[in-house]
Amino acid sequence: MYRANQLRWVGFVGVLVLTAATLAGELPSEPWPAAMPMLAAAVAGMGLLVLAWTLLGRVVTGAADAPDSRWLRWTLVLWGGPLLVAPPLFSEDVYSYLAQGEIAARGLDPYAAGPAEALGPSSAITERVSDYWSEAPSPYGPVFGGFQRGIAEITEENVVASVLAYRLVAVAGLALIVWAVPRLADVAGARAPVALWLGVLNPLVLWHFVAGMHNDSLMIGLMLAGTAFALQALGERFDPARLALGVALIAAGASVKLPAVVALAVVGTALARRRGGGPVRLAGSGAAMVLAVLLVAAVGSLLSGLGFGWLGTLGTSGGVNSWMAPTNWFGFLTGGIGSLFGAQITQTMIGVGRIIGYVLIVSGLIVVIRRQLQGRIPDVAALGAMLGLVVVFGPVVQPWYVLWAAIPFALCLPSGRARTALAAALTIFSVLIPPLAGDFTGKVGELVLAYVVGLLVVGGCFAFLRASSRHETTEVSPRR
Questions:
Q1: Residue 4: which residues within 8 A CB-CB, separation 6 or more?
Q2: How far apart are CA 97 and CA 149, in angstroms?
Q3: Which of 144, 118, 415, 148 is nearest to 254 (CA)?
Q4: Alpha carbon separation from 11 to 110, 197, 340, 432, 458 (Å, rounded)
Q5: Which label site among 70, 117, 182, 304 has the fewest CB atoms less than 10 Å from its CB?
Q6: Which letter, b or e, does each residue of 36-61 get, where b requires 16 or more Cβ atoms within 10 Å of its Cβ?
Q7: What is the DSSP string of 16-65?
Q8: Could you give the 3-state DSSP secondary structure of residue 240?
């Protein structure tokens, strides 16, 4: 069996290598031969952390002296620490946050114009924004819009200070997740250390919530903290004040990014079941949840000074034809076939696929809510299932979107194939994109070479750990 402390330091070395490689010259988005050593080192660092996390799972789930929750939380601090000083990794979305905040700070409407139009294409901030989003208005809710405006007013176009501020916001969201996971694991009857290892310590969280600074961290943190408060309030001793606080936190999460509203469906259904179940009580609880989210959104819109323009831009992200979204595959496939016959139908068929996806989401949510109301599916599992439907059949899928459903599932999946499949999915998505996303057209050879070098380093480390583990096992075995 592998040693937990040994794996902890292997992961730390991996993160240090990744951070040092990116700081050495901030890996260009289009790698060129001179940057190959840095790119290969960064990929190797990624691989070492993924390897350490994967092997640590065997210790956490199988060893008699498995590390406890406190040990895992400190490991998260150790692994995440170096990433606090790294440049934005795996995505450049943080620069879109900067631009949208600057638009609001100048008294303009971030929901009416994109960075190129509002700030000008020659703006130093606009130049950092991805071409996908330079013309797009903000798709985020008023709570996150308020953070964006406040950060822009405080940092005054200082890019480094702004990036650090967004990293602090993301880390605050992660802290909420760390707080909520053991409490929800208790509600679900699961082991907290396993939930922390699988749901919080996984590389995808470190890559995209610490290094990447995605606002999904804040959304999920508010959503899970609110769900923990609400479900605990609906336990043996009903606590209306705690329930109200939980609902308000979830609504605030939905005012960061809308998918968090799914948790209100879970809480509303749990409340209806506690009151005796039935469609009438479900409708009443649902109406209360809708009222809560509208109230929080209204307060956020007024306090942030941004108004209600966000209602018209919620679908902005869908403007990009995400290749990871299964609903778009229908359009890509049929469009490709149509192009063979001179028919340009790709975008039309992508639209058809998305409609099918929305129908599947609504149908699936109805099934899950019905089963939850009947007590046939636990509340936390219902949250994972609903968010899974939103991710899989939604119009856009990004690697970090997987965490919407993965973290709730980490709280309730039993040991066996389901948990192994989730761990495997997290591993795959953790290595799916290089440290800095960019256009690698014409540079595929360099990228493949970097991954080959990284794989060799990880393979060598794995061989060493395996040999070390066998040696220790031989030493402690009784002589025959």
A1: 56, 59, 60, 63, 66, 67, 71
A2: 9
A3: 144
A4: 40, 13, 49, 18, 11
A5: 70
A6: eebbbbbbbbbbbbbbbbbbbbebbb
A7: HHHHHHHHTT---SS--GGGHHHHHHHHHHHHHHHHHHHHHHHHHHH-TT
A8: helix
Phi, psi for residue 258 in degrees, rounded to 5 = -60, -35
416/201 Cα distance (integer angstroms) = 20
Residues in the chain: 480
- Whether residue 207 contacts residue 47, with contact meaning beta carbons closer than 8 Å, is answered with no
Own/partner contacts of 332-339, CB < 8 Å, gap of 24 or more, are none
Nearest CA among 345, 317, 343, 341 for reference residue 331: 345
Task: Report the alpha-carbon distance of residue 386 to residue 404 in Å, rounded.
Answer: 10
In which residue are the tokens 């016959």 written? 341
Token digits of residue 279: 């469609």
pLDDT of residue 276: 87
Question: Exposed, middle or buried: residue 20 (CB in 10 Å: 0-12, 13-18, 19+)?
Answer: middle
Nearest 10 degrees: CA dihedral of 426, 15, 177, 396? Answer: -50
Q: Can you tell me the distance from the alpha carbon of 381 to that of 189, in angstroms, rounded to the nearest whole number? A: 11
Distances (CA, A) of 250 to 114, 144, 258, 310: 28, 13, 10, 18
117's CB contacts (< 8 A; 6+ apart) are 135
Tell me how far apart the alpha carbons of residues 242 and 7 are, in angstroms, rounded to a whole number: 39
State the sign of the Cα–Cα–Cα–Cα dihedral 194, 56, 171, 162.
negative
Q: Which residue has the tokens 């070395």?
A: 13
The string of pLDDT tens digits covering residues 303-358 is: 888 888 888 887 777 667 777 888 888 888 888 888 777 778 888 888 888 899 99
Q: Are 394 and 325 in contact (CB under 8 A)?
A: yes
Closest Cα to residue 404, out of 272, 230, 131, 209?
A: 209
Among residues 156, 102, 104, the alpha carbon closest in space to that of 129 is found at 102
pLDDT of residue 63: 65
Q: What would the two tokens of residue 260 be?
A: 């968090």
Q: Which candidate, 160, 165, 174, 172, places its Cα nearest to that of 87?
A: 160
Count Cβ neighbours within 10 Å for each residue of 391-403 and write b for 16 or more, e otherwise.
bbbbbbbbbbbbb
Q: List the chain domain ranges.
A: 1-87+440-480
Closest to 226 in 3D by CA, of 179, 185, 280: 179
Alpha-carbon 175 to chain mean position: 14
